[in-house]
Structures are given as C-alpha cells and as structure tokens.
C-alpha cells in the first residue's frame, strides 16, 4: 500500500479508501460503514465519510493511557 499524505486524501473517503488507510479488507471497511458510531454521510445509495471526521473517529478508538 502506498501511504498518502493527509492533505492529498480526498475530502470524502469511500470504503476502498478506508480499507487502504486502515490496511483492512473491503468487507471490513463496509462493516465499519454500517456501525452507528461511524461518521457516514448517505447520498442516495452511496456512503461516504468526511476525511476529517474519519480521523477524529480513529483517534477516539485509541484507549486512554496514563503517562504516570
């Protein structure tokens, strides 16, 4: 997989983009699109994810860690 710079990613990500970014299968990416907490926008039958909201969602998935 070629890693893209954040700025070069499209504004709206598709399942294929999410699969590449997370290094998961397309089926797993489509599974994420069905989650209630995933930031999906529906346009007709198409589902897209705003790039910024996607990365905010990823950050929220990280467990809180203590630096103590």
Structure explained in plain terms:
This protein has helices at 15-22, 26-33, 51-61; strands at residues 12-13, 41-43, 46-50. Strand 2 (41-43) and strand 3 form a beta hairpin. With 68 residues, the protein is an alpha+beta fold. It contains three helices and three strands; from the N terminus they run E-H-H-E-E-H. The protein has a three-stranded antiparallel β-sheet with strand order 1-3-2. Helix 1 (15-22) crosses helix 2. The protein is 40% helix and 15% strand. The model has no long low-confidence stretch (mean pLDDT 89). The termini are far apart. 7% of the residues are buried. It has one domain (9-61): Orthogonal Bundle (Arc Repressor Mutant, subunit A), CATH 1.10.10. The protein is globular and about 40 Å long.
Keywords for this structure?
about 70 residues; alpha+beta; Arc Repressor Mutant, subunit A; three-stranded antiparallel β-sheet; 3 helices; about 15% strand; globular
**Biggest sheet, strands in spatial order?**
1-3-2
What is the averaged pLDDT score?
89
Low-confidence segments: none
Distance between the termini: 36 Å
Structural class: alpha+beta
Mind summarizing the main beta sheet?
A: 3 strands, antiparallel
User: How much of the polypeptide forms β-strand, as a percent range?
Assistant: 5-15%
- Shape, please? globular
What share of the residues lie within helices? 25-40%
CATH class annotation: Mainly Alpha
SSE series: EHHEEH
